[in-house]
Design brief:
Number of strands: 0
Number of helices: 15
Protein name: Helix-turn-helix domain protein
Number of domains: 3
Strand content: under 5%
Largest sheet: none
GO molecular function: DNA binding
Shape: elongated
Distance between the termini: 27 Å
Amino acid sequence: MIEKQELGEFYKELRLARKLKQSDVACDGLTASQLSKFELGQSMLSADKLILAIQRINVTFDEFGHKLNNYQESPHMRIGRKVVDRFAHQDIAGLEQLLKEVEQEQMAQTYRRLNAIVIKDAIHSLDKNYPLAEEDSEFLTTYLYAIESWTWFELYLFCNTMPFLSDQDLIFLSTSLLEKSKEFKELVHNRLYMKSGYLNIISEFMERKLFSYIPIFEAELGSMLRPYDVFEKLLWQFLKKMSIFLQTKGSNQIHQNRKSEIYIRKNVKYAIF
């Protein structure tokens, strides 16, 4: 754990780099004296005052934490990026090796298992013969139902484990997504996950032929997209055309577009790191 003197010195370094005096940072709720003692390592700031001090030097809390952590990603981010890379290269052996590595990670057993479930889902997406264990499905759904307010991790988890969910659980959790994630939806990273989440939901409903639920999520996705979300718009248009095809041409022709289905699932799924 970082010592309070080191934390104060670290903050001072950021403040001075921006040519700001302690009096420039001081405001209602945070005095120059409190800031001085903090930077000297004589006292700590309470959580609300620390957040205020960070905001006053125009640094986000994420940026502060990232630099404080010596620019190292969290274990979940690091594992997630490895999943993306190995999935993109269809490296099943690499994913299986990653599954073994996750078991050795220094994190709570709950998170080790949840990360392992994400990896298993990636393997299953590449090899439909790879089994998805019922006990993993139950563990996942119990976790997702229990969390009232979803942060980026729950969004990431939900987006990348949908095949583990039953139709009923998928429908319920999908419709609950907006409510469960509303507290953090304006954060840039969370907003990215939600857009990818809606694309994943639409894709998953298409694969399960649950077409009647798709318009709900198309409306939510449409309300979130901005003019610069070109990639998401292209994927959405592709999904629309695929949905029309699947509903009008019949299941006997689906195999002819298997390559298109694989393409869209690879580009929508795991496109959120």
